[in-house]
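Chapter review. Work through the record for Histidinol dehydrogenase before attempting the end-of-chapter questions.
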Amino acid sequence: MKITTLNINTPEGRQRRADLRNRFTEEGDGGCREAVAAILARIRREGDAAVLDYCRRFDSPVMTLDTLRVSAEEFALAEREVDDPFRQTLRLAAERVRVFHERELEDSWMLTRDDGTITGRMVRPVDSAGLYVPGGKEGSTPLVSSVLMNGIPAQIAGVGRRVMVTPPNREGRVNPALLVAAREIGIDEVYKIGSAWAIAALAFGTESVPAVDVIVGPGNQYVAEAKRQVMGRVRIDMLAGPSEVLIVADDTAQAAFVAADMLAQAEHDPQALAMVITTSESLAGAIVRELELQLPQLPRADIARTALNERGLILLADSLEQAIELANEIAIEHLELQIAEPWQWLPKIRHAGAIFLGSWTPEAAGDYVAGPNHVLPTMGTARIASALGVETFLKKSSIISYSRQALEADGNHIRRLAALEGLTAHGNSVAIRLGQR
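Structure tokens for Histidinol dehydrogenase:
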């Protein structure tokens, strides 16, 4: 394994620092973009027939329109196929996610003035939300946590219709753990479709799959590109890139912990980004040795090795101040502070998707049972974006109510601004009410 180690104050280190600041990728490669555009156009034009054709070609050749939606019998079978320990863990995770996200629910509010003017904001959920959950192919893992992280905030927001889409296996079945998780949080509308055609069906609607207002959930480059192309017609959670972790570590950090957390991120994807900024050169060397020790023990060692060889990075900083400032510049998805006094440095953090404080807080806790959402901004977008939450499924309407007295008081101001902008009818709409024509 080859992992790059650089001092951030060298010319090469400064160049890498600039590259990290500018790592945002707006679009996938041209071939993916064109392929997805063709899929979206065909689904919009042909509906169910196109969805079924793609599903048969790429996922399950036995799929029919009658079996596209998960049946009550399939839900019942799934319940019998999972064990009690899984149920216990599922319920614990669901409760933690629910309790955390209940604090995010926003209230409508009103302001009143003495002249009778009422203004305010009315908060309402969208009518429907689509949840994309990867799965299907042999060897793929059921992302149960994605069901919870996407479905529970929508439930708390009050979304009336929540629909899950997930690709089936060759036999046309969905992993039972995913179905049990969906049922646990009250979702019973599940379709066995995946990739870009699933996003298209959710965005445009077909004869069998009514369109939704919001689409959330992780996926491969085709899913991400499809979400990018339908954005605006529907709301999406975010344009997500490969998963990322940045660990700020001082000489109190344990190399084994740091290496383990780098590997936890690297095993996601060959393009995953696992980085460390440390003030200790000896720790940097110990981390590399730990990576070489732990890596061969992983079932997904090939994926993790590729990620570390191609994108893994250890940066040496002169001080914690310099390390924290660089962390803010990078605006990482997952930021770990494996330092002596993490809470002391927390106020200095301005840009991160999620922050993990102390050596006993692995990023994996946030992925599964801590409670905060694990759908987080990547590629530096933590500068401007937040984790998925209840607000993803809410919209706000402004409320304005004038009395005659209030309009008389504001009328000249409205007319003056309308005249300045050359919008005569705007001014007349006030004048006609006040008999000033």
